[in-house]
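Please predict the structure of the following assembly.
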Amino acid sequence: MFYRSVFPRDLLSELDRLQREMQQSYEFSPSIRGLARGGFPAMNVGNTPHSVEIYAFAPGIDPATIAVQLEKGVLTIAGERASVLPPREANATVHIEERFSGRFRRVVTLPDDADPNAVSAKYRDGVLHVSVQRRQAAQPRRISIE
Amino acid sequence: MNDNTNVTRKPDTAASDMALLPPVDVIEDAGGITLYADLPGVPKDKLNLLVEGDTLTIEGEVSLEAPEGMESSHAEVSLPRYRRMFTLSKELDANKVSAEFNQGALKLRIPKADHAQPRRIEIAVM
């Protein structure tokens, strides 16, 4: 899912956004697992010297049905989100349909120093937050000069 | 003074005014409209729903738990705020809007005013 940015009453920054998006789609080399952006759930990734933090924006899902798997340095987040749309025979009209529904699966390649034994995952306010610790040996150390 | 100065003026949109557009589903049935919106990362107390005149505004602040010193390396949710506005039509009863917000998913129910409920019109046979 791609959350578009909205700049009220400001055409200039709207054009700027358009230009940025075009640049991204041409210059950003796509990953071998498909487009790097635009899938569901949307993802943010952050780094600290001690850990890798992954945020998956998957609102309205029972956390028990989300599968988080870490295998050979690849983190996979998979699950399913039920549709809220009425069945075809119902007497209702769908005016806007933008939200994702159905099965989803997204993968993130973790850095080499990620420790598969030190992973924690939390689901809060519709965001799955996975924190992967880095191995101690890989952390920068100050070497004292004798 | 001439009016052209306005054209070269710097845009007055402050950084705090920028927001992401949350995706929505809008479904209408005989009794009213149901709106679903995705606002992941917004805690319940940071969600703002406002009906002003015939404008419905959905606004939420994203609050993520981040360890100290985290540097972002990839961001698809790139602003800490969502905002979206809708113009309601006359037959909807803005005073009776009910909302549920659960794990970043908002469900709004806007019923139609009583006088706008569908009625079957009897045809008198002469």
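The domain at 34-63+76-114 of chain B is CATH 2.60.40.790 (Immunoglobulin-like). Chain B is about 5% helix and 40% strand.
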